[in-house]
Amino acid sequence: MGLLLQLCLGTVYAWSYFQKPLMAAYGCSNSQVAWGFSLAICFLGLTAPWVGLNLERFGPRRLALAGGFLYALGYLITGLAIMGHSLLWLYLGFGVVGGIGLGLGYVAPIATVAKWFPDRKGLVTGMVVMGFGLGALIMAKVIAPVLMAKTGQNLSQVFFWICGVILVVALPAAACLQNVPAAQPGQQAGGKPTASARVALKSRAFGLMWLVFFINITVGIMFIGFQSPMLQDLMHAKSPELTTAALSAVGATLIAISSLFNGFGRLFWGAVSDRLGQIRVFRLILISQIFVFAALVVVREPWLFGVLVCYVLLCYGGGFGVMPSFTGVMFGQSVMPTVYGTILTAWSAAGIVGPQLAAFIKDHYADQAGRLTFIVATLLLLVGAALSFWLRPPAPPGRGDRPDCG
């Protein structure tokens, strides 16, 4: 049920499917439309720390139900915003209301399954967040095309229908979430952070984990918001005779395929981290992407571009698959919801920086947009890889139940 809920919430990653239609509907720039997606990710990250702090107080079921409802409401408000030709209401609906719903619904199932399966945290949390990565596949290849055809390309009607679909699927899934029957040893029932959580949040290790998470999300989310327009531009340059509909179909195919890698990466890297260790896996994710982005600087073949984007999305999803168990291993499972919820503010910050950086480059340096974007991403990854080597692995058994946080 946690995976099914995440599948609904993950439809936010199909935003690039609507990027060009919304630009045409509003007559505005890439950057203006991208703020809808940026704000949604921003408010997801801002809401997540509150969820981690209050998970025991309200329980996963209530928070997940509220999250599913608010995310659906965000689509409803967005549909009304399109009817009224209002960018402000699009930002408030999809960005603020929908983003808060994402934050409420995202953390609850992840923290809950980690309690049910403490000996396979990387695998099960990766399995649940895999749904978030696959949501774009369902939206871009099934829900959105069907609704666009059914409504005659009426965007407001499409968003109304999506609201109904999410309510029907997400709310029953959220209603099935429940905590383990007995409290974990050392787990506090109240909503206030424990002393060890406060220590963790002030530690050097937390700061470094936040930064490497932020960098990995930033470089990946550049593609999530703009992978379809980028591929369409490459395809148009290679085959100018292709129609707008054909280019849109190609872009939707890339969203669908890359979302498979985004989803599978969460499960794959999460499971691998149980064997190799979370720190080693995070270093591998960052370093391997340096070579990929360096290659993207010179790639002009659409199919090769698609392959490299899929690997970036595999690593992007891997960061989300590894971080929940990484947090639990570094700081202890009893404070994992609070610390993990706080570390998701990196997602919030990256949700602003990544799409807006890519949109700014595309709006102001159209001829060199792809090349400049990939160079910036390569430099960011070099910094992230260097920072990851300052992180120390957890203390071995016998030296206490929490590592030296630095």
Question: What report would you give on this structure?
Answer:
By secondary structure, the chain is mostly helical. The protein has one domain: Growth Hormone, Chain: A (Up-down Bundle). Helices cover 81% and strands 0% of the residues. It is built from 14 helices and no strands. The protein starts with a helix and ends in an 18-residue tail after the last helix. The C terminus is likely disordered.
CATH architecture: Up-down Bundle
Proportion of residues in extended strands: under 5%
Number of helices: 14
**Number of DSSP strand runs:** 0
Q: From N to C, what is the helix and strand string?
A: HHHHHHHHHHHHHH
| Total tally of structural domains | 1
Question: Which CATH class?
Answer: Mainly Alpha
CATH superfamily: MFS general substrate transporter like domains
Helix content: over 70%
Oligomerization category of the chains in this entry: single chain
Q: What would you call the structural class?
A: mainly alpha
Broad shape: globular
Largest sheet, strands/sense/barrel: none
Q: Could you give the distance between the termini?
A: 37 Å
